[in-house]
Design brief:
Oligomer: heterotrimer
Largest interface: A-C, 37 and 30 residues
Strand order of the largest sheet of chain A: 5-6-7-3-8-9
Shape of chain A: globular
Strand content of chain B: under 5%
Radius of gyration of chain B: 21 Å
CATH class of one domain in chain A: Alpha Beta
Helix content of chain B: over 70%
Largest sheet of chain B: none
Number of strands of chain B: 0
Distance between the termini of chain A: 35 Å
CATH superfamily of one domain in chain A: P-loop containing nucleotide triphosphate hydrolases
Order of helices and strands of chain B: HHHHHHHHHH
Number of domains of chain B: 1
Helix content of chain A: 25-40%
Order of helices and strands of chain A: EHEEHEHEHHHEHEHEEHEEEHEH
Radius of gyration of chain A: 25 Å
Chains: A alpha/beta (328), B mainly alpha (263), C mainly alpha (264)
């Protein structure tokens, strides 16, 4: 056995959803003889996370991501399987566990909007029983790390969304959690602010060795922050691998985009897939295990090429590819 | 053919849901009536005894009617909506439309009250029959007159509440004004008939909205007389004119104020 | 154990304090809310003046005693709404998945949830309760008892609200049941028990425990009776335990906001 910070074994959760027919008749019927439909949200998932890792936990909407996170943070009771977070069982040691973990749940706000971030942080200090002088010091420290100086005394409702998210993250770090659960931390932010938040998260991870468990639909978040990716779809674990492996696996495919002088007629061949063909503008995918890029270029007739761009497959496409392939 | 049956079915179902919600809201009304019935039973050592001209059964029917009138009104919501229209500036969009804002509010709200009123009347009558075992002696024409006074009463209530909502043109929150109005009606007009109050207060109440919006229809229902009916309907007509006039004046002044200040 | 209680208290205190700060941002609204509530409660005097002009004894209560009963009703109502406002819309908190935030905190979930907001108008009720008491007649012993009963009554109403709203863990429309239940209690609380007979009276001392929260305290205030006092305390404790147990049981059924998406 290895020492993991998070250990999830054969975890399952089903929801019993009452199906109600529409209208009064339906309401009455559902009172007398309720019909239930079981929705399997999480099916037999196992994985482990080690200290200091930043894990991307991703999947399409409704895949069971938040159900899993909620089970790890004691919000939901699992039906089957075991969870250990820092050695605690979330179903039994809720209080003990909560001292050790931090949560930032995307759009759900935990801050009092009429108060300043500073007062909010003090409140969180009280929630986690941190003595006054210690809180003061911690706030000072996090203020520097997350660059809150400008607005730490401005009521939260007057802050921009980006500033608010920074405060939300800081609020969840006041008690120095060993594991931080971040659910969609950059949702709704502009690219510059997104980048800024990512840098701060990375810095924080380095500084405190906090394990970060991140869900996001933003490929940028995943690519820039995470070394490991866990993908679930339809409640099942479909991939658990390092980011490098994930990319490497798809690295032998190249995208060739070319602008041509003359029209070329090209058909799908072994190792070549045409993605877009607009006569003079071509986009093809080359599988380098079957055919070299040079071969592909010959097919296009190099003399005819005005402009060319050869690139890797974007991570976004890799991921959606994985989602799709598991659907079939 | 099948699809039309389906459409009919879904339409009926969604309407039934609405009815179901109203019936559920009736529970609150029922609790109140139940307590008041107990109170009258305690108060009247002999059911045939007359207190201020009313016997126990009459008192019970009296509150059944006044409470129906009050509970079906939905005054707070209406007042809030008007206030909101004024504050958000929505009301100014209506200025150019080919109908009067007041008329529009009055008619839509009357429509809302209508369905709820029918259900409450049915359930209220049922409650009365179950608890009291008898129905006041009324001819069909009498009932028709009572219904007319009830509709007029609701019209006056709505107009008065609209005028209160329109106060928002001048004072930001009209809530307290509505609150005072509702207290006057509730305390002086729903539990006891006007005859229960000292003579001096009775004289004032006879000219107050209480007389036309709650006492009138309820009094006619428990103790019908043509004299009363004529004077109540007359008073109601005068009140409608006055209430509409007030609404119109406040609206005119308010719109002018907005035009001057540019919203 | 003691430090845990102390820490919990600190959070609750801060929570109330911060909510007060928020309400005080608009002083005019703050004051008018309180003022109108006092006025609102006072309106009932009209009804009782009329009733007492017909009969000078209402179910064994004198005018002053009925007044005290109203004070008691306002006091218990005020205490429960001011300190535990959120227990009255706990259903909504449960159904919308807003309980999440309290579960991840190392504090008592139920307590943190119900104390997370305050109702300013309820301060008016509490003030009204005090005014009525001083009109009734001050005496240090009954004053302390009165305060004590306002608190136990407030806690009992809160507990009932929690129990009814916790049904949301199991049933979809529990909020409607809870609303009716609370309404039932509050409607009866302002009428003397003497006017009710038979089953109704029996119900008032059992399922709708207005008898325990309001009638017993008035009897003890009029004439001290240690047994009735003990009954009041015991039922209060019992309801607290029951509320806590039912809520904790329900928590295992909690589905956060997941059910919402599954309902579509």
């Amino acid at each position: 056995m290895f020492m993991a910070i998070i250990e999830v074994k054969k975890l399952s959760k089903t929801f019993k959803v009452k199906i109600k027919d529409k209208g009064l008749k339906g309401s009455l019927k559902s009172i007398i003889k309720p019909k239930y439909k079981t929705v399997k949200a999480v099916k037999n998932i196992s994985f482990a996370v080690e200290r200091g890792e930043i894990i991307a936990f991703i999947g399409p909407n409704g895949a069971g991501k938040s159900t899993t996170i909620k089970m790890m943070t004691s919000i939901l009771y699992p039906d089957k399987g075991t969870i250990r977070v820092l050695g605690y069982d979330p179903t039994k040691d809720r209080k003990k566990l909560s001292y050790e973990i931090g949560t930032v749940f995307g759009q759900k706000e935990q801050l009092w909007t009429h108060l300043t971030p500073y007062d909010n942080f003090k409140f969180f200090g009280a929630i986690y029983d941190i003595p006054e002088p210690v809180v003061e010091k911690k706030i000072e420290e996090l203020k520097m790390l997350f660059e809150l100086d400008e607005f730490i005394n401005t009521p939260v409702r007057n802050l921009s969304l980006g500033q608010r998210i920074r405060c939300e993250i800081v609020a969840s770090l006041i008690h120095e959690p060993k594991v931080l659960f971040l659910d969609e931390p950059t949702i709704g932010l502009d690219p510059v602010v997104k980048e800024n938040i990512r840098t701060l998260i990375k810095r924080m991870n380095k500084e405190y060795k906090t394990t970060i468990f991140l869900t996001s639909h933003d490929v940028g978040d995943i690519e820039k922050l995470c070394k490991r990716v866990i993908i679930i779809n339809d409640g099942q674990l479909v991939l658990d691998d390092t980011m490098e492996n994930l990319k490497y696996h798809y690295l032998n495919k190249k995208i060739v985009e070319a602008k041509m002088k003359e029209r070329v007629n090209l058909d799908d061949e072994d190792g070549i897939t045409i993605i877009k063909d607009k006569g003079y503008n071509l986009k093809i995918e080359v599988d380098t295990t079957k055919r070299s890029v040079a071969d592909a270029l010959k097919l296009l007739n190099p003399d005819n090429i005005i402009d060319i761009n050869i690139s890797n497959i974007p991570l976004e496409d890799i991921i959606s590819d994985i989602y799709k392939s598991k659907d079939l | 053919m099948r699809k039309y049956l389906f459409i009919i079915k879904t339409q009926i179902m969604s309407n039934l849901q609405y009815v179901f919600n109203i019936v559920f809201s009736f529970i609150g009304y029922f609790i109140l009536l139940f307590i008041l019935f107990n109170l009258w039973q305690y108060l009247y050592s002999d059911p045939n005894e007359l207190i201020n001209g009313y016997n126990m059964t009459q008192m019970s029917w009296y509150v059944i009617i006044t409470e129906i009138l009050w509970m079906t009104l939905g005054g707070r919501k209406l007042c809030h909506k008007i206030s909101q229209d004024v504050r958000s500036g929505n009301i100014t969009y209506n200025i150019n439309k080919p109908y009067s804002y007041i008329g529009y509010c009055l008619s839509t709200h009357l429509g809302d009250v209508f369905v709820k009123g029918l259900i409450y009347i049915f359930l209220g009558m049922l409650t009365g029959l179950l608890f009291l075992g008898s129905f006041p002696k009324l001819t069909l024409i009498n009932i028709l007159v009572v219904l007319i006074t009830a509709i007029l009463a609701t019209t006056i209530s709505i107009l008065l509440i609209i005028s209160i909502g329109l106060i928002s043109f001048f004072i930001e929150d009209s809530g307290p004004f509505y609150w005072i109005y509702s207290k006057i009606i509730l305390v002086l007009g729903t539990i006891f008939p006007i005859e229960y109050f000292p003579t001096i207060i009775q004289k004032i109440l006879n000219f107050s909205p209480v007389y036309v919006v709650s006492y009138g229809p309820a009094k006619l229902f428990v103790d019908f007389s043509w004299d009363k009916a004529v004077s109540i309907i007359l008073a109601q007509i005068i009140y409608i004119i006055i209430a509409y006039g007030i609404c119109y004046l406040i609206y005119k002044k308010g719109v002018k104020k907005i035009n001057v200040n540019g919203g | 154990m003691l430090t845990e209680v102390k820490n919990q208290w600190k959070v609750t205190r801060l929570s109330i304090q911060y909510a007060l700060v928020r309400e005080l941002l608009n002083k005019a609204t703050f004051l008018s809310n309180i003022f109108f509530m006092i006025l609102n409660d006072s309106c009932m005097i009209v009804q009782w003046i009329v009733l007492f002009s017909i009969k000078n004894n209402m179910g064994g209560y004198t005018f002053k005693q009925v007044l005290l009963l109203w004070g008691m009703a306002a006091g218990t109502y005020g205490v429960s709404r001011f300190f535990f406002k959120k227990s009255f819309n706990l259903s909504e908190t449960i159904n919308s998945g807003k309980l999440d935030a309290y579960i991840v905190q190392p504090k008592n979930i139920l307590l943190s949830t119900i104390t997370s907001d305050i109702e300013i108008a309820a301060l008016g009720d509490i003030l009204f309760a005090l005014i009525v008491y001083f009109i009734y007649g001050f005496n240090m012993r009954t004053f302390l008892l009165y305060l004590f009963f306002c608190i136990t009554g407030g806690v009992m109403i809160t507990a009932i609200a929690i129990i009814l709203n916790s049904l949301s863990f199991w049933f979809n429309n529990a909020d409607m049941i809870a609303d009716v239940g609370i309404r039932l209690i509050e409607s009866f609380a302002t009428y003397p028990d003497g006017i009710f007979k038979g089953i109704t009276k029996w119900l008032l001392f059992t399922i709708i425990p207005i008898g325990i929260t309001n009638y017993i305290p008035i009897k003890v205030l009029i004439e001290f009776n240690p047994y009735l006092l003990i009954i009041n305390i015991c039922v209060c404790l019992l309801l607290m335990i029951l509320a806590y147990t039912i809520f904790s049981k329900g928590l295992k059924k909690y589905s956060s906001s997941n059910l919402m998406s599954a309902r579509i």
